[in-house]
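Something for you to look into today, if you have time. I want to see for myself how the chain folds. Leave the record below and I will have a look.
***
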Amino acid sequence: MDITEIAVPEFVEVAPDDRLGQIQSLFDRDAPRGVVVLSDGEVEGVIGERDLIRSRVEESTKAAALAKSAPAVDRDEDVREVARVLVEGGVKLAPVYEDGELYGVVTADAILEAVLDSLDAITVGDIYTENPITIHEDANVGQAINRLREHGVSRLPVVDDEELVGIITTHDIVDFVVRDDQRQGRGDRSGDLDRMLDIPVYDLFSSPVLTTSTDENVEVAVRRMLDNDVAGLVVTDETETAATGVVTKTDVLRALTFTEEEQLDVQITNVKLLETLGRTEVRDSISQVADKYQEMTVMHAHVRFHEHKEKLRGTPLLQCQIRLRTSHGQVAGSGEGYGAENAFRVAVDKLERNVLELKGVVADERYRGQLIRKLGGL
Protein backbone atom coordinates (compact mmCIF):
# COMPACT_ATOMS: atom_id res chain seq x y z
CA MET A 1 0.00 0.00 0.00
CA ASP A 2 1.39 3.42 -0.95
CA ILE A 3 0.45 6.98 0.03
CA THR A 4 -0.90 8.07 -3.37
CA GLU A 5 -4.39 8.57 -1.96
CA ILE A 6 -3.23 9.57 1.52
CA ALA A 7 -1.11 12.59 0.60
CA VAL A 8 -3.11 15.78 0.11
CA PRO A 9 -2.38 19.14 -1.55
CA GLU A 10 -4.05 21.10 1.28
CA PHE A 11 -1.03 22.95 2.61
CA VAL A 12 0.35 26.48 2.53
CA GLU A 13 3.81 27.69 1.61
CA VAL A 14 5.54 30.31 3.75
CA ALA A 15 9.00 31.84 3.86
CA PRO A 16 11.37 31.48 6.84
CA ASP A 17 10.93 35.20 7.67
CA ASP A 18 7.12 35.11 7.67
CA ARG A 19 5.57 35.89 11.06
CA LEU A 20 3.70 33.26 13.07
CA GLY A 21 0.79 35.64 13.51
CA GLN A 22 0.31 35.65 9.73
CA ILE A 23 0.59 31.88 9.58
CA GLN A 24 -2.07 31.47 12.25
CA SER A 25 -4.45 33.54 10.14
CA LEU A 26 -3.81 31.15 7.22
CA PHE A 27 -4.92 28.22 9.38
CA ASP A 28 -8.03 30.11 10.41
CA ARG A 29 -8.87 30.98 6.81
CA ASP A 30 -7.79 27.97 4.74
CA ALA A 31 -7.70 25.09 7.27
CA PRO A 32 -4.61 23.46 5.68
CA ARG A 33 -3.16 20.14 6.85
CA GLY A 34 0.17 21.83 7.47
CA VAL A 35 2.65 24.54 6.58
CA VAL A 36 5.75 24.00 4.45
CA VAL A 37 8.57 26.50 5.00
CA LEU A 38 10.37 27.18 1.71
CA SER A 39 13.57 29.11 1.04
CA ASP A 40 14.64 29.59 -2.59
CA GLY A 41 12.35 26.73 -3.56
CA GLU A 42 13.89 24.31 -1.05
CA VAL A 43 11.96 22.89 1.91
CA GLU A 44 13.48 24.06 5.21
CA GLY A 45 10.90 22.46 7.45
CA VAL A 46 7.26 21.99 8.29
CA ILE A 47 4.83 23.36 10.87
CA GLY A 48 1.76 21.44 11.98
CA GLU A 49 -1.32 23.19 13.31
CA ARG A 50 -0.86 21.63 16.74
CA ASP A 51 2.74 22.89 16.84
CA LEU A 52 1.54 26.41 16.05
CA ILE A 53 -1.33 26.42 18.51
CA ARG A 54 0.72 24.96 21.36
CA SER A 55 3.79 27.13 20.86
CA ARG A 56 4.52 29.75 23.47
CA VAL A 57 6.03 32.35 21.18
CA GLU A 58 5.28 35.91 20.12
CA GLU A 59 3.13 36.36 17.03
CA SER A 60 6.01 38.36 15.55
CA THR A 61 8.35 35.34 15.78
CA LYS A 62 9.60 34.11 12.40
CA ALA A 63 8.43 30.81 10.93
CA ALA A 64 11.98 29.44 10.87
CA ALA A 65 12.01 29.38 14.69
CA LEU A 66 9.14 26.86 14.84
CA ALA A 67 9.77 24.84 11.67
CA LYS A 68 10.79 21.22 12.18
CA SER A 69 13.08 19.41 9.79
CA ALA A 70 11.07 16.72 8.04
CA PRO A 71 11.99 13.96 5.58
CA ALA A 72 10.64 14.37 2.06
CA VAL A 73 8.79 11.39 0.56
CA ASP A 74 7.49 10.48 -2.88
CA ARG A 75 3.78 10.30 -3.52
CA ASP A 76 4.04 6.62 -4.49
CA GLU A 77 6.18 5.68 -1.45
CA ASP A 78 5.13 2.62 0.55
CA VAL A 79 3.14 3.45 3.68
CA ARG A 80 5.53 1.41 5.85
CA GLU A 81 8.52 3.48 4.75
CA VAL A 82 6.66 6.75 5.33
CA ALA A 83 5.68 5.57 8.81
CA ARG A 84 9.35 4.78 9.48
CA VAL A 85 10.68 8.18 8.41
CA LEU A 86 8.00 10.00 10.42
CA VAL A 87 8.89 8.06 13.56
CA GLU A 88 12.63 8.43 13.09
CA GLY A 89 12.27 12.13 12.32
CA GLY A 90 10.09 12.70 15.37
CA VAL A 91 7.49 14.51 13.24
CA LYS A 92 3.82 14.04 12.39
CA LEU A 93 3.97 15.71 8.98
CA ALA A 94 6.14 15.34 5.87
CA PRO A 95 6.30 17.11 2.49
CA VAL A 96 5.35 14.91 -0.48
CA TYR A 97 6.87 15.14 -3.96
CA GLU A 98 5.54 13.97 -7.33
CA ASP A 99 7.77 13.95 -10.40
CA GLY A 100 10.29 16.10 -8.55
CA GLU A 101 7.76 18.80 -7.66
CA LEU A 102 6.26 19.55 -4.26
CA TYR A 103 2.78 18.02 -4.35
CA GLY A 104 1.47 18.30 -0.81
CA VAL A 105 1.84 16.81 2.63
CA VAL A 106 1.13 13.56 4.43
CA THR A 107 0.23 13.40 8.11
CA ALA A 108 0.53 10.65 10.69
CA ASP A 109 -3.21 10.85 11.36
CA ALA A 110 -4.00 10.39 7.67
CA ILE A 111 -1.85 7.26 7.57
CA LEU A 112 -3.55 5.83 10.65
CA GLU A 113 -7.01 6.56 9.25
CA ALA A 114 -6.08 4.84 5.97
CA VAL A 115 -4.90 1.62 7.64
CA LEU A 116 -7.50 1.45 10.41
CA ASP A 117 -9.32 -1.57 9.00
CA SER A 118 -6.08 -3.58 9.08
CA LEU A 119 -5.28 -2.72 12.69
CA ASP A 120 -7.95 -4.97 14.20
CA ALA A 121 -5.57 -7.93 13.71
CA ILE A 122 -3.16 -6.78 16.44
CA THR A 123 -3.76 -5.92 20.06
CA VAL A 124 -2.54 -3.09 22.24
CA GLY A 125 -0.50 -5.69 24.13
CA ASP A 126 1.55 -6.29 20.95
CA ILE A 127 2.83 -2.72 20.70
CA TYR A 128 2.41 -0.74 23.94
CA THR A 129 5.17 0.48 26.24
CA GLU A 130 5.17 -1.15 29.65
CA ASN A 131 6.00 0.40 33.03
CA PRO A 132 5.11 4.02 32.25
CA ILE A 133 6.78 6.96 33.96
CA THR A 134 4.20 8.34 36.40
CA ILE A 135 3.89 11.27 38.80
CA HIS A 136 1.96 11.76 42.04
CA GLU A 137 -0.91 14.21 42.02
CA ASP A 138 0.72 16.23 44.85
CA ALA A 139 3.93 16.82 42.85
CA ASN A 140 4.34 20.30 41.38
CA VAL A 141 4.52 21.40 37.76
CA GLY A 142 8.28 21.95 37.97
CA GLN A 143 8.76 18.32 39.00
CA ALA A 144 6.51 17.19 36.15
CA ILE A 145 8.55 19.19 33.64
CA ASN A 146 11.78 17.68 34.96
CA ARG A 147 10.38 14.17 34.68
CA LEU A 148 9.12 14.77 31.14
CA ARG A 149 12.55 16.07 30.10
CA GLU A 150 14.55 13.45 31.96
CA HIS A 151 12.73 10.53 30.36
CA GLY A 152 12.05 12.14 26.99
CA VAL A 153 8.30 11.52 27.15
CA SER A 154 5.32 13.76 26.44
CA ARG A 155 2.77 12.44 28.96
CA LEU A 156 2.70 11.27 32.56
CA PRO A 157 -0.11 9.22 34.12
CA VAL A 158 -0.98 10.87 37.44
CA VAL A 159 -1.38 8.54 40.41
CA ASP A 160 -2.49 8.61 44.03
CA ASP A 161 -1.32 5.59 46.03
CA GLU A 162 -0.62 3.86 42.68
CA GLU A 163 -4.22 4.40 41.56
CA LEU A 164 -4.62 6.19 38.22
CA VAL A 165 -6.40 9.51 38.75
CA GLY A 166 -5.46 11.55 35.68
CA ILE A 167 -2.87 12.40 33.05
CA ILE A 168 -0.71 15.46 32.40
CA THR A 169 1.04 16.18 29.10
CA THR A 170 3.48 18.75 27.78
CA HIS A 171 0.53 20.26 25.93
CA ASP A 172 -1.40 20.72 29.21
CA ILE A 173 1.54 22.61 30.70
CA VAL A 174 2.07 24.80 27.62
CA ASP A 175 -1.66 25.55 27.45
CA PHE A 176 -1.62 26.67 31.08
CA VAL A 177 1.41 28.91 30.57
CA VAL A 178 -0.08 30.48 27.42
CA ARG A 179 -3.41 31.15 29.15
CA ASP A 180 -1.59 32.72 32.09
CA ASP A 181 0.44 34.90 29.72
CA GLN A 182 -2.72 36.10 28.04
CA ARG A 183 -4.28 36.99 31.38
CA GLN A 184 -1.24 38.69 32.88
CA GLY A 185 0.36 40.24 29.80
CA ARG A 186 4.04 40.09 28.84
CA GLY A 187 6.93 41.62 30.71
CA ASP A 188 9.12 40.47 33.57
CA ARG A 189 7.58 37.10 34.41
CA SER A 190 10.31 35.59 36.61
CA GLY A 191 8.18 35.69 39.76
CA ASP A 192 5.14 34.39 37.92
CA LEU A 193 7.20 31.54 36.48
CA ASP A 194 8.33 30.45 39.95
CA ARG A 195 4.71 30.52 41.07
CA MET A 196 3.60 28.41 38.12
CA LEU A 197 6.30 25.80 38.74
CA ASP A 198 5.06 25.40 42.32
CA ILE A 199 1.45 24.73 41.30
CA PRO A 200 0.46 21.12 42.08
CA VAL A 201 -0.10 18.71 39.21
CA TYR A 202 -3.54 18.15 40.72
CA ASP A 203 -4.63 21.56 39.40
CA LEU A 204 -3.64 20.82 35.79
CA PHE A 205 -4.09 17.14 34.99
CA SER A 206 -6.93 15.84 32.82
CA SER A 207 -9.51 13.47 34.25
CA PRO A 208 -11.14 11.07 33.55
CA VAL A 209 -8.32 9.43 31.62
CA LEU A 210 -8.83 7.86 28.20
CA THR A 211 -7.66 4.28 28.67
CA THR A 212 -7.33 0.95 26.91
CA SER A 213 -6.35 -2.61 27.80
CA THR A 214 -3.75 -5.01 26.46
CA ASP A 215 -6.39 -7.24 24.86
CA GLU A 216 -8.20 -4.44 23.01
CA ASN A 217 -7.52 -4.43 19.28
CA VAL A 218 -5.47 -1.53 17.97
CA GLU A 219 -8.18 -0.37 15.55
CA VAL A 220 -10.51 0.45 18.45
CA ALA A 221 -7.73 2.15 20.40
CA VAL A 222 -6.67 4.32 17.45
CA ARG A 223 -10.28 5.31 16.74
CA ARG A 224 -10.53 6.48 20.34
CA MET A 225 -7.38 8.60 19.90
CA LEU A 226 -8.61 10.13 16.64
CA ASP A 227 -12.13 10.78 17.92
CA ASN A 228 -10.82 12.54 21.03
CA ASP A 229 -7.87 14.30 19.32
CA VAL A 230 -5.29 12.78 21.66
CA ALA A 231 -1.93 11.24 20.82
CA GLY A 232 -2.01 8.38 23.31
CA LEU A 233 -3.95 6.25 25.79
CA VAL A 234 -3.05 4.88 29.21
CA VAL A 235 -3.08 1.09 29.42
CA THR A 236 -4.68 -0.19 32.63
CA ASP A 237 -4.85 -3.53 34.43
CA GLU A 238 -7.92 -5.73 34.93
CA THR A 239 -9.21 -3.46 37.68
CA GLU A 240 -8.87 -0.40 35.40
CA THR A 241 -7.35 1.49 38.34
CA ALA A 242 -3.59 1.06 37.82
CA ALA A 243 -1.51 2.34 34.89
CA THR A 244 0.52 -0.54 33.44
CA GLY A 245 1.62 1.14 30.22
CA VAL A 246 1.04 3.72 27.52
CA VAL A 247 0.20 3.30 23.84
CA THR A 248 0.59 6.19 21.40
CA LYS A 249 0.04 6.93 17.74
CA THR A 250 3.79 6.68 17.33
CA ASP A 251 3.71 3.11 18.70
CA VAL A 252 1.15 2.24 16.02
CA LEU A 253 3.22 3.86 13.26
CA ARG A 254 6.24 1.94 14.51
CA ALA A 255 4.28 -1.34 14.30
CA LEU A 256 3.65 -0.64 10.62
CA THR A 257 7.41 -0.80 10.04
CA PHE A 258 7.84 -4.35 11.37
CA THR A 259 9.34 -6.51 8.61
CA GLU A 260 10.14 -10.14 7.93
CA GLU A 261 13.77 -9.42 7.07
CA GLU A 262 16.35 -11.72 8.61
CA GLN A 263 18.22 -8.69 9.90
CA LEU A 264 17.03 -7.31 13.22
CA ASP A 265 14.39 -4.64 12.63
CA VAL A 266 15.70 -1.48 14.35
CA GLN A 267 13.79 1.79 14.62
CA ILE A 268 15.75 4.92 15.57
CA THR A 269 14.05 8.03 16.88
CA ASN A 270 15.93 11.33 16.46
CA VAL A 271 18.27 9.68 13.96
CA LYS A 272 19.85 13.08 13.28
CA LEU A 273 21.66 12.79 16.63
CA LEU A 274 23.58 9.68 15.53
CA GLU A 275 26.58 11.70 14.27
CA THR A 276 29.40 9.21 13.57
CA LEU A 277 27.43 6.25 14.88
CA GLY A 278 25.87 4.37 11.94
CA ARG A 279 22.61 2.45 11.71
CA THR A 280 24.49 -0.76 10.87
CA GLU A 281 26.64 -0.42 13.99
CA VAL A 282 23.54 0.13 16.11
CA ARG A 283 21.85 -2.96 14.66
CA ASP A 284 24.95 -5.13 15.03
CA SER A 285 25.52 -4.14 18.67
CA ILE A 286 21.94 -4.94 19.64
CA SER A 287 22.05 -8.19 17.65
CA GLN A 288 25.17 -9.26 19.53
CA VAL A 289 23.34 -8.86 22.83
CA ALA A 290 20.29 -10.74 21.57
CA ASP A 291 22.31 -13.53 19.94
CA LYS A 292 24.02 -14.40 23.24
CA TYR A 293 20.73 -15.78 24.50
CA GLN A 294 19.28 -18.00 21.78
CA GLU A 295 16.20 -18.80 23.83
CA MET A 296 15.03 -15.19 23.34
CA THR A 297 13.60 -14.10 20.00
CA VAL A 298 13.74 -10.35 19.29
CA MET A 299 10.95 -9.05 17.04
CA HIS A 300 11.76 -5.36 17.05
CA ALA A 301 14.21 -2.90 18.57
CA HIS A 302 13.53 0.77 19.21
CA VAL A 303 16.43 3.11 19.92
CA ARG A 304 15.62 6.64 21.03
CA PHE A 305 18.06 9.51 21.49
CA HIS A 306 17.19 12.58 23.54
CA GLU A 307 19.42 15.67 23.71
CA HIS A 308 19.99 17.57 26.96
CA LYS A 309 21.12 21.20 27.10
CA GLU A 310 24.37 20.34 28.89
CA LYS A 311 27.51 20.14 26.73
CA LEU A 312 31.17 19.19 27.17
CA ARG A 313 33.57 20.91 24.78
CA GLY A 314 30.68 21.43 22.40
CA THR A 315 29.44 17.82 22.55
CA PRO A 316 25.86 17.53 23.88
CA LEU A 317 24.84 15.23 26.70
CA LEU A 318 22.52 12.61 25.20
CA GLN A 319 20.21 10.05 26.72
CA CYS A 320 19.82 6.80 24.81
CA GLN A 321 16.94 4.42 25.44
CA ILE A 322 16.86 0.94 23.88
CA ARG A 323 13.69 -1.12 24.05
CA LEU A 324 13.38 -4.65 22.66
CA ARG A 325 10.13 -6.45 21.98
CA THR A 326 10.95 -10.11 22.50
CA SER A 327 9.31 -13.49 22.89
CA HIS A 328 9.77 -12.94 26.64
CA GLY A 329 8.08 -9.53 26.67
CA GLN A 330 9.76 -6.13 26.68
CA VAL A 331 13.28 -5.47 27.93
CA ALA A 332 15.02 -2.11 27.97
CA GLY A 333 18.23 -0.33 28.81
CA SER A 334 19.09 3.34 29.00
CA GLY A 335 22.17 5.45 29.55
CA GLU A 336 23.63 8.91 29.17
CA GLY A 337 26.86 10.15 27.67
CA TYR A 338 28.42 12.98 25.73
CA GLY A 339 27.72 12.19 22.10
CA ALA A 340 25.60 9.43 20.57
CA GLU A 341 28.27 6.72 20.67
CA ASN A 342 28.99 7.10 24.40
CA ALA A 343 25.30 7.24 25.32
CA PHE A 344 24.55 4.21 23.14
CA ARG A 345 27.36 2.13 24.67
CA VAL A 346 26.13 2.80 28.20
CA ALA A 347 22.57 1.89 27.16
CA VAL A 348 23.74 -1.35 25.50
CA ASP A 349 25.60 -2.39 28.69
CA LYS A 350 22.46 -1.77 30.73
CA LEU A 351 20.36 -3.64 28.16
CA GLU A 352 22.62 -6.69 28.38
CA ARG A 353 22.33 -6.77 32.16
CA ASN A 354 18.56 -6.62 31.89
CA VAL A 355 18.49 -9.32 29.21
CA LEU A 356 20.27 -11.62 31.66
CA GLU A 357 17.16 -11.50 33.81
CA LEU A 358 15.18 -13.07 30.98
CA LYS A 359 17.48 -16.08 30.77
CA GLY A 360 15.79 -19.40 31.34
CA VAL A 361 12.32 -18.31 30.23
CA VAL A 362 10.84 -20.58 27.54
CA ALA A 363 10.84 -18.73 24.21
CA ASP A 364 7.78 -18.33 22.04
CA GLU A 365 9.47 -18.40 18.63
CA ARG A 366 6.17 -18.23 16.80
CA TYR A 367 5.31 -14.79 18.18
CA ARG A 368 7.28 -12.76 15.67
CA GLY A 369 5.78 -14.58 12.68
CA GLN A 370 2.29 -14.25 14.09
CA LEU A 371 2.66 -10.50 14.56
CA ILE A 372 4.11 -10.03 11.06
CA ARG A 373 1.29 -12.08 9.53
CA LYS A 374 -1.24 -9.93 11.35
CA LEU A 375 0.28 -6.83 9.77
CA GLY A 376 0.85 -8.49 6.40
CA GLY A 377 -2.32 -7.10 4.85
CA LEU A 378 -1.07 -3.52 4.93
In short: Confidence is low (pLDDT under 50) at residues 185-191, 360-367. The chain has three domains: 11-117, 124-252, 258-375.
